[in-house]
Amino acid sequence: MTSIEDAIQLVKASVKPILIKTTKPVEKAGGYFLFEDQFSPINMPPFRQSAMDGYALNLHDSLTYNVIGEVKAGDIQQPILKKGEAVRIFTGAPIPDTANAVMMQEKVKTEGNKITIEHTITEEYNIRPLGEQVKTGDLALKKGSKLTPAAIGYLSSLGIKEVSVLKKPSIAIITTGNELIEGGQILPFGKIYESNSKMLLAALYSLKFYDVSIHKVEDDFEKTVTKLNTVINDHDLVIITGGISVGDYDFVGKALRKLQVEEIFYKVKQKPGKPLFFGKKAETSIFALPGNPAAALTCFYIYVFIALQNMMNREATELPRIKAKSLSNFSKKGDRPQFLKAVYTDGTVEILEGQSSAMQHTFAVSNALVFASDEVNKINKNDMVETILLPV
């Protein structure tokens, strides 16, 4: 049986980046990473710009100025100001070439077409210079930058319509089990509503992986082989739930062997999620997760998350781990390390009731996992415990 530490290292070593360039409209590139350096096609701002609502001035020795006009944001005219003249101006409006400072309106007294400013000011006061953020041809965002909402806004402000980004993996989720039916139907005796695919899809979407297809296969060996062969050939990452244990109707392991999938590890010394498979066929990574929902989601966060980050060429591939003060007592049964569903708040963590691998209600309110290693048999209140923060 593989240790947790070895399993993590094997995933890191086995999953390689997908270094393929694809082009996305900038408004649809959120969550992607730039494939190459992005240079600015323009100066930003593209003209000298007012940073305030107030008055643009052609400075002279007096504090009094004659107002000769007005410039709003979007105006294209360029009033010519002589020394001692001013124009009313608004935030974001272009500064006339003959103006050299802006006084905010709160520090101006008006009387007809004359204004008096409260104090002397220096040249370029409250003026955003041409190219203050970035100049034409300068590096706007470097290769590998994550395209956050702010980055999308920034690139859009430069007039950029498309960006070259790192391709994200194509992902297939396969659920197995004759007992599974879709929600919205009357629940017959012996059946359960299928939830793992929705859960994993939501987890992937929350991480901004959207190229995901969902497949269902019955507990039938030949059908399992056929379905797995198709999705493995067509996807970068395959996530299977259920059918990986050793029951008479658990066909996933047998099907993977028939398809000559390389087994990198099978079974991890942990709770929940012991019957976890990870393998490769060509460049496709394959995870077979336990069917129990809490076990499947735990394995997703501890192992599949790393694979996804590796595929995107990220340096930090694991979820953050911190020390937090336990608000709970907990006694561990057995000798396997355990991931415990928990709620983290401001340096403290509460270990929740209902740790069974089949129980989803506890996970539904969790935002962390407490890790109890082999050496930890008991957790007491106020103990400092290793806490994995979930992306929720």
Automatic annotation (TrEMBL):
- SMART domains attached to this UniProt entry: MoCF_biosynth (SM00852)
UniProt domain MoaB/Mog: residue ranges? 172-310
GO BP: Mo-molybdopterin cofactor biosynthetic process
Q: In which pathway does it act?
A: Cofactor biosynthesis; molybdopterin biosynthesis
Top-level EC class as recorded in UniProt: transferase
Catalysis: reaction(s): adenylyl-molybdopterin + molybdate = Mo-molybdopterin + AMP + H(+)
Query: What's a Pfam family this protein contains?
Result: MoeA_N
User: Which SUPFAM superfamilies does the record associate with it?
Assistant: MoeA C-terminal domain-like, MoeA N-terminal region -like, Molybdenum cofactor biosynthesis proteins
A Gene Ontology molecular function term for this protein is: metal ion binding
Please report which protein family the annotation says this sequence is part of: Belongs to the MoeA family.
Tell me, in a sentence or two, what this protein's role is.
Answer: Catalyzes the insertion of molybdate into adenylated molybdopterin with the concomitant release of AMP.
> What is the protein named?
Molybdopterin molybdenumtransferase
